[in-house]
Amino acid sequence: MHCSWRVSVYWQRIIRIIRIIRIIRIIRIIRIIRIIIRSHTQQARSLSDQESVGHEKPVGATAEHDHRKEHGAQIYSQVILDQKWQINSAGNGAFKSENEARIGTDENKVFLKLQADKSESSQADYAAEILYSRNISDFWDVQTGLRYRQENISQHTASLQNERFDAVLGLHGLAPYFFETNAYLYVGEDDFVGFKLETERDLLLTQKLIMQPFIELDIIFNDQAASAKKSGLSHATLGLETRYEISKKVMPYLQVGYEYSKGNKQAVWQQASGSDRVWIYALGLKMMF
Length: 289
Prior knowledge:
This protein is an alpha+beta fold. The chain is 23% helix and 53% strand. The chain has a twelve-stranded antiparallel β-barrel with strand order 1-2-3-4-5-6-7-8-10-11-12-13. Residues 51-64 have low confidence and may be disordered.
């Protein structure tokens, strides 16, 4: 009895080993079948891609076509609201509002920009731009459109408004070393020709606390309007913004900067004024949706 029991135990072990070997073989066969199916699927996809784009196009053209089909056609939108109260070292305060909305794909977008500048004891100046933006490289868009400006000129007897339209051509994108840059050329009424450059860069102190140095330059090449500024470097601002991102949608900030203004040109509606150099301090709130 004891011998027969041992034989039965050994036989059961042999059966288990045979079953394990069979399971291992089945798993190997399944893996081989999967590999064969994947290889045939990849070959079929490559053949279909070659038929769709043509045999004469290079590989780069096929990759570009696939990228644009998968990612370039996605439509997205963004709204940026930036409001701040600014005071300079001469004691003059001003409320400034800069708002921007954009909608489109990676290749084609439309920008709408609205700006308001209200100094103490004076009416507000307004500017609106509508721009078509076309992607021309990995980091740059070329933009073209129209700008509308309403400038208020205070005189001793009354306050006058001057409305002007300018054509816009420029670049929007990311310069080397991650400087976000806007460069625009303006050509408009009264023989106006001007250039504007804005550039800034984020420096992360923490994930939420961010410093941002920025430069703004306005250059006027020619202007024969009744409210013209002096030609040359008309306005320049060099500053540092420190913001705290409560979230990616709400970001209060502080600004400190140095501002230069060349002054107004002698014209029908205004007297000539000299240049002005002041320090500026601002408290603002930026919201993004």
